[in-house]
Amino acid sequence: MGGFFKSSIGRKVAMALSAFFLMFFLLQHFAINILSVFSPELFNEVSHFMGTNPLVQFALQPVLIFGVVFHFIMGFVLEIKNKNARKIAYVKNNGAANSSWMSRNMIYSGLAILAFIVLHFIDFWFPEINTKYIQGDWSGTIEGVEGFRYYEELTHKFVSPIRVGAYVLAFVFLALHLLHGFTAAFQSMGASTIRKKRLQSIGKAYSIIIPLGFIFIALYHHFNH
Amino acid sequence: MNLTLKIWRQKDSKTKGRMVDYKVTEISEHMSFLEMMDVLNEQLVNSGEDPVAFDHDCREGICGMCSMYINGEAHGPDRGVTTCQLHMRMFKDGDTITIEPFRATAFPVLKDLIVDRSSFDRIQHAGGYISVNTSGNTQDANAIPISKHAADEAMDAATCIGCGACVASCKNSSAMLFVGAKVSQYALLPQGQVEAADRVKNMVAQMDLEGFGNCTNTGACEIECPKGISLENIARMNRELMKASI
């Protein structure tokens, strides 16, 4: 089995498996974030649970970080290998004649998402790690805020129009990445064309609804606070 | 029609190539693309120049020798054809046509528009066959019942002529449609089952060794394939390799 993951197909499968994991994570992240629009109290409760539960913190979080890092590194490794497979470029190449823009530019949409993740980590993850693991404050509360702090921190981040603009742009790139990546992951896993056609509708829905939902959350908090 | 041709000229595999402009006049729209190239070469020979080297054999759309990338597409803008079946009616009077060889590290240019596709041969040698005793005692293939669906799918895969348009069209220079077709044509039939696991492992290993890129499921290969080989063959190869590796 070790030899399998060293092969080109094995690497495709590994990319697809990490993509499935990240798509599932994205779904649950959205499910929690959308609570902030309907019920700040519930959003705070769920955020505190996710932020302090040992299983989430010490088992799922490291797996998630590994999944993200692996997907990006493997993406870059495959891109370099693919570039080396054609060292002399065509003088004229009409890629649009036979493939979608999304499928040809996964590396660029991926890089835009990577830039967003860096911003997202600076905004939320690093302060969270600092509060809990360096300062040792696991209370989920902050001075001047009644109850848990998570809703207050979220809405505070979406005050800046520049940050909201960056988030919106990043989620547009995420949608473009998913529009190809969703079905491509199933194809890499050997899904048949018939099943793939059914999956295309689900893929399109997922790829548009989830990023659009995140954009809605950012804009909602920007215009309501 | 009168045309301007921008053609990749390269003396041999070691020399650096470049694009050179040529003019051809009074080209009939009923000519095939290769016939138009013949007109150009006649012109070049008559003026004492080196004719443009290009590969061709059957000129009936089945040999797959014509490794030409025309106006940014393998075998030009028409669908389901090789270059000999591409007709000049696909172009307009006054057009400029860019003609390059198929580009891939695993398909080095030998001269002008001719590329070395022996990497495909080596992949075939790695497992694209069934070991059958052909001493005269071979069982009649029709004696083994095969479902119509499987027979049709295997036949569709077997129509691959190994032209390399899939590699040329793929932004990653991946050979997975070719290898997928070769794996599939045997994987679907009972005669291919005995060596199925070794076949897919060895052919994929050889494909990787030759320096082809990784498939990212753009689907360009399927669109540009002159024989309509479907992406389903890549999915089947992926399943076959997973099955063989577990």
From TrEMBL, chain A:
InterPro entries: Cytochrome_b-558 (IPR011138), SQR/QFR_C/D (IPR034804). One of its GO terms (cellular component) is membrane. Keywords: Membrane, Transmembrane, Transmembrane helix. Gene3D superfamilies: Fumarate reductase/succinate dehydrogenase, transmembrane subunit (1.20.1300.10). CDD domains: SQR_TypeB_2_TM. The chain crosses the membrane at residues 55-78, 106-126, 164-185, 205-223. NCBIfam families: sdhC_b558_fam. This is Succinate dehydrogenase / fumarate reductase cytochrome b subunit.
UniProtKB/TrEMBL annotation, chain B:
It comes from Flaviramulus basaltis. The lineage of its organism: Bacteria, Pseudomonadati, Bacteroidota, Flavobacteriia, Flavobacteriales. The keyword Iron-sulfur applies. This is Succinate dehydrogenase / fumarate reductase iron-sulfur subunit. Residues 151-181 form the 4Fe-4S ferredoxin-type domain. Belongs to the succinate dehydrogenase/fumarate reductase iron-sulfur protein family. Its cofactor is [3Fe-4S] cluster; [2Fe-2S] cluster; [4Fe-4S] cluster. One of its GO terms (biological process) is respiratory electron transport chain. The keyword 4Fe-4S applies.
